[in-house]
Design goal:
429 residues; six-stranded parallel beta sheet
Length: 429
């Protein structure tokens, strides 16, 4: 006999949270949702959910309270700090499921506040960040990294199974789910900005960007983020916002902050973060992160990737210094270095690296290079590209690609200054 589905409160009904809450409601769970933006609540009500005017109202009759808010500051406000905070209204022995991406230490801070400040040690706390994007959120096929007491994960299994495919049970208690998401986001953050830089270079070099996209996706330079973001670049489609720049900036910051806190060097992640920070002065933090490509385009030509999608001259491997092979080599080389950095970082924070390999290969941080080279990178007590048979060749092609990109940009800056009709060039690289 099937057990009755428990009452669920849901706070944060944005692109991801809304899809999750609606999927739960369609799956027969009684869901009461809260969000500061009423139209998002209305979407939940339209499929049978209930509206709550406050976090406390969403939590009041709910055995489970799911949070899918932007950051740890919003989580604290919803749970403890606002006048209508949820914790004070939660039933005895209720469960908080924190699905937001937050710094790993925040879980211990929250547990302490629940126990001492709120005097609610009865409340269960699960650390279960998610990955997979809006489509998988709506379909109930997210990757969820659940950590906490095993009995508490078992208690929430019906909800976790409804929202996930796959569900990863991460051992080690609260914070390990967030460490897992953090390690995955190292790859996501590196790959998103690389897609923008590669397509910006292709466009300003005069290549046919549609042909570049097709060639990359059939090569060792392929990546989930490249395949997901570039189609929007090809149409200059920055709306609707699927994932804002501010989100990946926040996630990159979690990675780099933890690296600094633990004394672990992350040169690629730090470089990516600095480029996301540059989106602030450019005025695009709230826009879709595919629009980051404009950081690598001339200010007067923000739609150049779209324009070059139908280019008939300066084709993918004809003319100029940069060719489609240059773009592939650039991506493959950076992905090789990024894979090593991510795996060493994960081991440093105490993760099971075999689990991370599986997560990344099946997730939004995947690249063809990561899947191919990581199994050979474990060398003795550490991680090294020396275990990759063709690492030297990949390195040499990367060095040549960087040299060609630099020459291409210098040639075109010279053309602009001389007043010739050379192709427009990027102001950043």
């Amino acid at each position: 006999m099937t057990s009755a589905k428990p009452f669920v409160g849901f706070c944060g009904l944005g692109a991801m949270g809304g899809g999750m809450a609606i999927h739960l409601a369609k799956s027969g769970f009684p869901v009461t949702g809260f969000d500061v933006y009423q139209p998002l609540v209305d979407k939940l009500v339209a499929v049978g959910g209930k509206a709550a005017p406050s976090p406390a109202a969403a939590a009041q009759a709910s055995s489970f309270l799911i949070l899918m808010v932007v950051n740890s500051q919003q989580a604290s406000s919803v749970l403890l700090d606002s006048p209508d905070a949820a914790v004070k209204a939660m039933p005895k022995d209720a469960t908080i499921m924190l699905c937001s991406t937050v710094p790993p230490p925040y879980l211990f801070e929250l547990r302490k506040r629940l126990d001492t400040e709120a005097q609610r040690p009865d409340i269960r706390l699960l650390d279960c960040p998610v990955s997979g994007g809006t489509i998988r959120a709506a379909n109930g096929t997210l990757s969820i990294f659940a950590s906490g007491p095993e009995s508490d994960i078992d208690h929430a299994k019906m909800i976790l199974d409804t929202l996930s495919d796959p569900l990863y049970r991460i051992p080690g208690g609260i914070s390990m789910g967030s460490k897992t998401k953090m390690a995955h986001q190292h790859q996501a953050a590196t790959n998103i900005i690389m897609a923008s830089e590669a397509m910006g270079l292709a466009a300003v070099a005069g290549l046919n960007t549609q042909e570049v996209y097709a060639a990359v996706m059939g090569s060792v330079g392929a990546a989930f983020m490249f395949g997901n973001r570039v189609p929007h670049m090809l149409k200059s489609a920055w709306t609707p916002v699927r994932s804002a720049v501010a989100i990946i900036l926040k996630d990159a910051g979690i990675v780099t902050d933890y690296g600094r806190m633990t004394g672990f060097p992350l040169p690629l992640a730090n470089t990516a973060e600095q480029l996301y920070i540059a989106a602030g002065p450019a005025g695009i933090l709230k826009e879709d992160d595919a629009g980051l490509v404009r950081l690598f385009l001339p200010r007067a030509e923000p739609r150049l990737v779209e324009k070059q999608a139908v280019a008939t001259d300066g084709g993918s491997s004809k003319g100029g210094v940069v060719s489609v092979e240059t773009i592939v080599d650039l991506l493959a080389g950076v992905y090789l270095a990024s894979a090593r950095e991510a795996m060493a970082f994960a081991e440093n924070v105490g993760m099971d690296t075999d689990v991370l390999y599986d997560i990344v290969c099946k997730g939004a941080g995947s690249t063809a290079m990561f899947a191919r080279v990581v199994p050979g990178m474990k060398v003795g007590a550490g991680w090294s590209i020396k275990g990759v048979a063709d690492a030297a060749a990949i390195r040499d092609r990367l060095a040549l690609a960087v040299e060609k990109a630099t020459r291409e940009l210098h040639l075109n800056v010279s053309a602009q200054r001389s007043g010739s009709d050379g192709r427009l060039r990027a102001s950043a690289t």
